[in-house]
Amino acid sequence: MRKKLLCLTCLLVLAGCENTPIKKAEPQAAVVTTPIESPLDREIKSLLEKGISMSERKRQVSAIEAAFTRRTTPQRARQLAALCFTKTLSTPFMPFDLAEIALAETGGSRLSAVAVSSKGAVGVWQLMPQRARSHGYTPQDMENDEKCAEAAVRELFTKLEVAAGNLERAKKLYCGQGPQANAYLRKIRHVRQEMLAELEHQTERLAMEESGTKTP
Questions:
Q1: Looking at the domain assignment, is residue 20 inside a domain?
Q2: Coiled-coil annotation: which residues (predicted)?
Q3: What is the percent of the chain with per-residue pLDDT over 90, rounded to a whole number?
Q4: How many domains does the chain have?
């Protein structure tokens, strides 16, 4: 009797196991790798969303590099031109704006980082010590091209507010006031024409290359 009960219990257990639904293995979600964006990539993406042309900025940098090369070494010209591009991102300014100031200030001194004016302005973009301090830099920082470029952008932005949004007047105020500032503005216009001519030359050369015509 005991054996019969044991056999019956085993049969019931087996029947229950047969009726138990088998769980299917759930498919694992595919691992999606998101490409890592650098800060510069995000900056460029943000500007493109705002409708600001990166191609125009890059075209300007090529013209700036050519103008700088006439005054300093090719390597230094390339480095300073790159700063004109990167330090004007997310600002109201274009690379030409920063380059014009550099050329007007120290173009005659081979764009030297250690150039010092008779009044004590320092660096490629010639910041006075008190103006450098007002933007959070020391006068010694102005011998560092990157920091000097940053300070120059902040100074130009300050002058733009004073000039009620008139960029050319802001560049004149960057120098100061009076006859010296008027002469400075004429120099700014001259170097601007130089870079615009270089930009036009590069555009013509690119068009000739695309059409298969040999450039001179």
A1: no
A2: none
A3: 66
A4: 1
Domain membership of residue 133 (yes or no) is yes
Query: Does residue 4 belong to any structural domain of this protein?
Result: no
| Residue 14 included in any domain | no
Contact (CB, 8 A) for 61 and 96: no
pTM, 2 dp = 0.74
Q: Which domain holds residue 100?
A: 54-209
The more confidently predicted of residues 32 and 119 is 119
